[in-house]
Amino acid sequence: MPAPPDATPLICPLCERPIPPAQRDAHHLVPKSRGGRHTEFLHRVCHRQVHALLTETELARQYATVDALLAHPQIRAFVDWVKTKPDDFFVPTRKSARLRRR
Predict the structure, then answer these.
(1) What is the full DSSP assignment across 4-59?
(2) Other beta carbons less than 10 A from residue 90's beta carbon
(3) How do the pLDDT tens digits run along the chain, 102 residues long?
(4) Domain assignment of residue 102, yes or no
């Protein structure tokens, strides 16, 4: 018997792994504080990594698409690493030193 349509797992557009409901975060591609409305569901660990590396201004001006995020070298390195982890993998994330100095 096939699964009901609403049981189709959401796929993280960054790491391309299924997102368990408990690990699902809505990410505003352009931050709400900068007028953004569109969201993409990301793994919580991917979402936190994006915000640990980039400011809201950078997100709004340079990284307002999934493709732009994936072009960022540190995001790409993280995604390549996290792709090998289980779907429910989570590790605490720290702000980058660059953002902590602000």
Answers:
(1) PGGGSPEE-TTT--EE-GGGEEEEESS-GGGT---EEEEEHHHHHHHHHH--HHHH
(2) 15
(3) 444 455 678 999 999 999 999 999 999 999 988 888 989 999 999 999 999 999 999 999 999 999 999 999 999 999 999 999 988 887 777 777 777 766
(4) no
Number of folded domains in the chain?
1
d(CA 9, CA 65) in angstroms, rounded, equals 21
* Residue 41 domain flag: yes
In a domain, 98, yes or no: no
The HSE-up count of residue 94 (CA atoms within 13 Å, CB side) is 5
Q: How far apart are CA 48 and CA 25, in angstroms?
A: 9
